[in-house]
Amino acid sequence: MASGQAFIENLINILDIISEQRTISKGEFLIREGQIEKNLYYIETGAVRVFHLSEFEEQTIRFGYEGSFINSLYSFIKGTPSEFYIEALRKSTLRVISKGQLLDIVNESNERLKQYNSLLETLVCQQIEREIDLLTVSPSERLRRVLERSPNLFQEIPLKYIASYLRMTPETLSRIRNS
Amino acid sequence: MQIQTHLLIEDLLNRTEKATRAVKRFKELSIEQLNYKKSATEWSVLECIEHLNLYGDFYLVEIEKQILAHKSKAPSTVFKSGLLGNYFANLMQVKDGKVNKMKSPKDKNPVNSVLTPTTLDRFLKQQERLKSLLIQAQHVDLTKTKTAISLTGLVQLRLGDTFRFFVYHIERHVLQAERIHAGRTSPHLSTSTVG
């Protein structure tokens, strides 16, 4: 874990030098379904959400906050069309780094490679946490789990997207919060 | 009205494919073009499509439910339209490019809601689902299988009529959206209250 953190710190330092900055306004998309993810984004300010679109609804599956990295990961790794959309929830400034640039940094030294591996391990664990979220039957328990990970959730993200992330209606979410 | 089941399904699949192609062309338009409207009370292209999505939310779920629940082993090869079902379907149908004006129920009126390009993507997903349901329906009795309707719980329609109503309704509003984009909205379509 500590080593993954080291990679992130290194990466952020390098980003200052090599990456381009992009500003997107509320409602703009970083990627849409069907496009191929070529970048990794670091959120300097703002917030985004990752969602999957079905015939009937948009299902929010992940948030990106200030100071976090985000992209459509599966598409980025495999080079296949993205199944997800990433949308800015408010005006956001991002650092953009391409897959090629990232791999150059990773392959620079053995130490970097180890750090990167450690970062990927962290990501796998986060995915498992999310999987448990989705398997958790009780709505209030789902909310508790997420608040433990992201205590500032309600300050950062509009309620309707939190409800979608928790797989409940906004009304249910309000009721649980007030009880 | 009476028709061979496979002919009806073939016809509805063709109409569905045509509507899908038309909406795929809308994906090339800018968000400004998609939201363009002549006046505040009229619909934009996206509002026409969102109106269809709201219907799809009800009918695709209902149709799928009835198809999954159907029991008949040897479905009839002929579909016989019901009195009311035939009336509703014909009401929706575009004839010689003419559309009879009607009011949309409030809960299906998307006017002035905030819409994004995902509206089009959602519609295209619904069209895929519709296509799949039409194909599955080849093995279902379209006359004996009944579905609920969105307007009232008092009436049920024959599945074949529900499909006709649903597909004609899509045709109608895709045509409306095309005319809005072309900027030559016909007098028949000039208000937001077109069904």
TrEMBL record, chain A:
PROSITE patterns registered for this protein in UniProt: CNMP_BINDING_3
Pfam families: cNMP_binding
Cyclic nucleotide-binding domain boundaries: 9-115
Gene3D superfamilies the record matches: Jelly Rolls (2.60.120.10)
InterPro entries reported for this sequence: cNMP-bd_dom, cNMP-bd_dom_sf, RmlC-like_jellyroll
Protein origin, superkingdom: Bacteria
Transmembrane segments: none
Name by which UniProt lists this protein: Crp/Fnr family transcriptional regulator
Organism: Paraflavisolibacter caeni
From TrEMBL, chain B:
Ranges of residues in domain DinB-like: 20-177
Transmembrane segments: none
UniProt superkingdom: Bacteria
InterPro entries, A to Z: DinB-like, DinB/YfiT-like
Protein name per the record: DinB family protein
Organism listed in the record: Paraflavisolibacter caeni
